[in-house]
């Protein structure tokens, strides 16, 4: 060989991929048995199918930034917003407090989200089309791919903690918006950038009223009847904010009625 270089044996790549497939099958069995979160298995399956980086391996040398579509990294004003379908009435932007998810799930929590380098505060749970009466469309037929590609996910990974969650949100909610997959996530980023995050939350028991007030105080035009704080039996989980299709804050009584009824759910510190 020129320069004394050794030719890489082609069967090594096949063997490596076979080992990944075997590890994936084992992980799938653990997920079905409830021993690991199914979302983590879905992340790894999507990565394997698309040939991308897996958390079962070391990090890739290819940066996410190099694969990120520019139109998913930023928005440039309301005039550039995608135009959604007329089949629903308004949006709900669901923001999840990531430390609550990690504390609640413990060892079952997704390692991508709760491991070292994971998100520290609010992340996007989803952007949901809603009807005024409180119902919402879901799982609509679509000609778009059901899975979110690594390239598309690279443009939103700072918002949505795992590719499995991104795929779930697209299939359940995004397919009912009349938008392409890329435009749905463009709209998700635009909605996220509309909202300012308060900095005086977390660190113990926090009343839902205090959490609401913190968001209302830093977001001009947002009223108490335009958002809802949700919780599980112990932790504050989501803040759900209602927006019209131009991403203006609006009242949404049906969403507001579903707010947390605990007096002081826990809101763990940023890790």
From TrEMBL:
Q: Which residues cross the membrane?
A: 21-41
Question: Record's CDD domains?
Answer: RNase_T2_prok
Residue segments, region Disordered: 52-81
| Any GO MF annotation of the entry | RNA binding
Report if keyword Membrane is assigned: yes
Question: Which GO terms fall under biological process for this protein?
Answer: RNA catabolic process
- Quote the biased-composition stretches of kind Basic and acidic residues, using this chain's numbering: 67-81
Q: Keywords assigned by UniProt? A: Membrane, Transmembrane, Transmembrane helix
Q: Which InterPro entries match?
A: RNase_T2-like, RNase_T2-like_sf, RNase_T2_His_AS_1, RNase_T2_prok
| Family per similarity comment | Belongs to the RNase T2 family.
Name listed for the protein in its UniProt record: Uncharacterized protein
Task: Tell me what organism the protein belongs to.
Answer: Notoacmeibacter marinus
